[in-house]
Amino acid sequence: MIFKFVVYLLLPFLALINPLKIAFAPLMTSFGKIIENPVENIIFTSLGVKQLYSDILYIRLLQYYGTPEEKMEAFEYGSGEYPLFYPMALNIVATDPYYTNAILTGAGVLAFNLDKTYKAISILRFAMIYDNNNYKYLTLLSAIMIKESRKNLYDKSLLDKLYEVSILEETPVILRQITAFLHKKAGKYDKAIEIYDLILKTSKEKYYIENAKRQIDEIKKMI
């Protein structure tokens, strides 16, 4: 207990360790996980402060992303290449796959700021190995897929995953609506109608009911 208290006091100083220095540390691949700086990871985990270590990694990630890149003439937050962002974000997932806020931040920045869609998806899919039906992950995943649908790009396995979750009893209606929309855009009309019909049967909100009716009529005219 005393040791943990001391480590927490040192957290601000540990987080200030230059992430650029640790980014090129050796990688250890095991069971599909990529661990950056495995010695440091093992030490913190063995001492029972895994969550603390995840916090340190998250702070380093934010510091890295908030620092102007050397070749930047004018710093604009959110822009740039940041080639180390993905491995650093992946390291957080490998260390603590249940660290939802850090994982959402990593995937969101990759998808919408750095335009690295498939790396963002890989972060979410990695986390979902452990937290399979996390609605926050699924909602972000569906938002990324809507972004890609503008280019008429669809990932069948991801569509199938969203469909499987959308028909579960406890799934939020907003996620069902997004899933139905994506299936319609992808030309999977039968599943789109099925999900919209499920919304009609389960939702009590007027907007979703009216939209579902309208979408079903539109799809039937397209078939």
SSE layout and pairing:
Layout: H1 2-15, H2 19-22, E1 27-30, E2 33-36, H3 38-46, H4 50-65, H5 85-95, H6 100-113, H7 117-128, H8 135-149, H9 156-166, H10 173-185, H11 189-202, H12 206-222
Helix pairs in contact: 1-4, 4-5, 5-6, 5-7, 6-7, 6-8, 7-8, 8-10, 9-10, 10-11, 11-12
Describe the structure.
With 223 residues, the chain is mainly alpha-helical. The chain contains 12 helices and 2 strands; from the N terminus they run H-H-E-E-H-H-H-H-H-H-H-H-H-H. Helix 5 (85-95) packs parallel to helix 7 and helix 8 (135-149) runs parallel beside helix 10 (173-185). The protein has a two-stranded antiparallel ribbon with strand order 1-2. Strand 1 and strand 2 (33-36) form a beta hairpin. Residues 1-33 have low confidence and may be disordered. 67% of the residues lie in helices and 4% in strands.
- What is the strand arrangement across the widest sheet? 1-2
Task: Report the order of strands and helices.
Answer: HHEEHHHHHHHHHH
The global form is elongated
Structural class: mainly alpha
Rg for CA atoms: 21 Å
Mean pLDDT: 80
Terminal Cα separation, in Å?
A: 65 Å
Helix content: 55-70%
pLDDT < 50 runs, ≥5 residues: 1-33
Number of helices: 12
Q: Beta-strand level of the residues, as a percent range?
A: under 5%
Most strands sheet: 2 strands, antiparallel
Number of strands: 2
